[in-house]
Amino acid sequence: MIISISGMPGAGKSTVAKMLSKKLGMKRYYIGGMRRELARKKGMDIDRLNEIGEKESWTDKEVDEFQKELGKKEDNIIIEGRTSFFLIPQSLKVFLDVDLHTGAQRIFEDVKKNAERNEPVYGSVAEAEAAVRKRMEGDKRRYKKYYGVDIYDRSHYDIVIDTTSMTPEEVAGRILSVLKHRGK
Predict the structure, then answer these.
(1) Which end of the chain has fewer beta carbons closer than 10 Å to its terminal beta carbon, N or C?
(2) CB of 160 within 8 A of CB of 97?
(3) Per CATH, the architecture of 2-182 is what?
(4) Which letter, b or e, does each residue of 48-62 get, where b requires 16 or more Cβ atoms within 10 Å of its Cβ?
(5) Strands (DSSP E) along 39-165, which ranges?
(6) What is the pLDDT of residues 43-81, one digit of tens each?
(7) Is residue 180 a contact partner of residue 89, using CB atoms and an 8 Å limit?
């Protein structure tokens, strides 16, 4: 079984993927981390890499090809990435939703203490919210251009969970419950 996790910025994708990986004993792949590392190697933050990505496909193609191959070669993995559901169509597709303000607030707090995010430290939650909105618009344009898909269209996913008022443990528990119900 392959579980792909996508969703809104700040919805808790990484936290939940880590929990599921541990509980299920499955290897986790973090595509956003690969892209963040690519940005770091190029001397830029993730926001700049995303901007370039709207004009130049190299910012996505390498990690996207990696995902496609991974979906063909491996099983019993959790893959966390914006396009994973699309590139690995046989996966159980999970979308984590969150209220935009709540997601921005989570990112605002996380960026202050987690340099691995490789994104600007925002001066306020409002600034983080504006950056999240801009990122989502860019993601939507980029993936529509390269793949003809709207990654935020919830109808693409098998499981959609609004994490706004949930703890990461509750979200992971809900996914595990669905898996148990489906006999996975």
Answers:
(1) C
(2) yes
(3) 3-Layer(aba) Sandwich (3.40)
(4) bbbbebeeeeebbee
(5) 77-80, 92-97, 159-162
(6) 988 888 888 888 888 888 888 999 999 999 999 999 999
(7) no
